[in-house]
TrEMBL record:
InterPro entries hit by this protein: Chitinase_II/V-like_cat, Chitinase_insertion_sf, GH, Glyco_hydro18_cat
Name this polypeptide is given: Chitinase domain-containing protein 1
GO molecular function (one): chitin binding
Species annotation: Trapa natans
CDD domains: GH18_SI-CLP
Length: 528
């Protein structure tokens, strides 16, 4: 058995053996010390990404795969290859030479390096004693499916690699998908259906009016970290506040979820009380906090997801500096009170607060928006922010549900434009991804509205449309005419559109929130 070790944060990739690569060894097991197996080589579905610390991977001797290494201009990276048995065997060291400056011409896209391999005698291969080899090989990047993804990765390179070996092999993660492929494959899952691919937190919403979401939550609970059933409302009744919605709570469902996984249950609570009265009266604010915390303790929840900003914005109170300050103070007070309480299941585990925020709608933060100032100010009191990056278009202005360029602008406004600009705040964001779509009547203003997965499949079966990929928004859509000769535009998520939003969240270091899982198709979970 051979063990490889690399120093530095540069990835080692494995590819089929050829004359332009140095033969190393075939992979036997996955990596340790935080490294991950990835899809660097689709033919074999394997690869190794080395972290910032020394990491190692056990390999079997063989000639089926070869190693190649990516590294920055002028940098050096060392790959040690040593036998793990017998004990005391010598180490073979392979040192990457400095890369030469690029030159113009046809070969400008290739990276050239010289590899000096000095193999010493060891007990696994006596025939290679004192033999020196000089091998020149070319490092290149494997093109991702579709021109859009290639451009996207060049502009927004991911900060880390994740284990997504099946994605490159999934035939439907592409721009030119057909309606026949979707109809045939939407309910099929890979063998990795229970294994997480997106390593950051995943918050999924379920609603009482869509029971399919409850079943999907149980089926794919291992792919989720947080689940938020939409159950509760804080309302004003005869001059006092009441918390309604306990009749929606399904404790058997919660029990089933917890048996299958370590998922955290945080029901959504929406503040329906008139904010002008609610925020001005300290007793009402304290009453609301008391009701929410008591319900968490009584029902054994792990915390709550609170939604209020959109309601306050609808009432127009956020332009008032005094009411805005009271609103932010209420969220802080609720967060501190929730954090002082613990879960019923684990007294050492404190309750959590996730707060729902809407995205800025323009290219700059307006007075009524929840912006970076509010994000920073509430970061100590709030464990996460569920960012609603969807509903960009509507019947009066038909278009994509959540254009990727708009999502990027929202993230830039909240977290800054530089990579890793907000390493503390970014992990608290749950980037919103819609599992629903829209069927708009054209021209705008005539009608149309939201559709779910079953509606989408029915439209595909009936109209047999040609799906189009809109690269600026990174969404699929199609057009059709109904029996009244009215023209329609249908936007609904695809594997590629979801994948690109996962990549955006991954590159930013954020989690994701899904509204809502019962409205999607089964194979969406393949890329979570």
């Amino acid at each position: 058995m051979i063990r490889t070790r690399s120093t530095g944060p540069y990835p080692i990739q494995f590819a089929p053996k050829s004359d332009s690569y140095a033969p190393i060894h075939s992979i036997r097991t996955s990596a340790t010390n935080g490294t991950r197996v990835c899809s660097a080589c689709p033919e074999f579905g394997v690869g190794l990404t080395v972290g910032s610390q020394q990491s190692q991977l056990d390999l079997d001797p063989g000639s089926g795969l070869v190693a190649r290494m990516k590294y920055p201009l002028g940098k050096q990276c060392r790959l040690d290859v040593e036998p793990t048995r017998p004990e005391g065997a010598k180490t073979t060291r392979i040192t990457m030479a400095r890369r030469r400056d690029r030159r113009g011409g046809p070969s400008a896209d290739h990276r050239l390096a010289r590899l000096d391999v000095s193999n010493r005698q060891n007990q696994l291969n006596h025939s290679n004693a004192d033999r020196k080899l000089m091998i020149i090989f070319t490092i290149f990047f494997i093109a991702l499916p579709g021109v859009s993804i290639l451009v996207y990765r060049m502009k927004y390179p991911p900060q880390k690699e994740t284990a997504r070996s099946y994605i490159s092999q999934n035939p439907l993660v592409k721009a030119d998908v057909s309606y026949l492929e979707i109809l045939a494959e939407h309910s099929k899952l890979t063998e990795n259906a229970t294994q997480r691919s997106f390593v950051n937190p995943v918050l999924a919403y379920v609603t009482p009016w869509n029971s399919r979401g409850y079943e999907l939550a149980k089926r794919f609970s291992s792919r989720l970290t947080h689940i938020s059933p939409v159950w509760y409302e804080v309302k004003s009744h005869e001059g006092t506040l009441v918390l309604e919605g306990r009749h929606n709570a399904d404790m058997r469902w919660i029990s089933d979820l917890r048996i299958k996984s370590n998922i955290q249950i945080l029901p959504r609570v929406i503040l329906e009380a008139n904010p002008k009265d609610f925020l001005r009266k300290k007793k009402q604010r304290s009453k609301a906090i008391q009701l929410i915390v008591a319900e968490c303790r009584d029902m054994g929840y792990d915390g709550v997801v609170l939604e209020s900003w959109s309601r306050w914005m609808a009432y127009g109170i956020l332009h008032d500096p005094n009411l805005r300050a009271l609103a932010l103070q209420f969220i802080q007070d609720l967060g501190h009170e929730i954090h002082s309480a613990s879960t019923r299941e684990d007294p050492g585990q404190r309750l959590q607060l996730i707060y729902v925020i809407g995205p800025p709608r323009s290219e700059k933060v307006e007075a009524y928006d929840f912006g970076p100032k509010e994000l920073q100010g509430l970061s100590n009191a709030v464990d996460g922010f569920s960012l609603m990056t969807y509903d960009f278009s509507g019947p009066h202005s038909p278009g994509p549900n959540a254009p990727l360029n708009w999502i990027r602008n929202v993230m830039n406004l909240l977290l800054g434009t530089k990579p890793n600009a907000s390493p503390i705040l970014a992990p608290k964001i749950f980037l919103g991804i819609n599992f629903y779509g829209n069927d708009f009547v054209l021209p705008g203003g005539v009608g149309g509205g939201a559709i779910i997965g079953a509606d989408y499949l029915s439209l595909l079966e009936k109209h047999r449309p040609s799906l189009r990929w809109e690269k600026n928004s990174a969404e699929h859509f199609f057009l059709y005419s109904d029996e009244n000769k009215a023209n329609h535009a249908v936007f609904y998520p695809s594997l590629l559109s979801i994948f690109m939003r996962l990549e955006e969240a991954h590159s930013r270091g954020t989690g994701i929130s899904i509204w809502e899982i019962g409205q999607g198709l089964d194979y969406f979970f393949d890329i979570l």
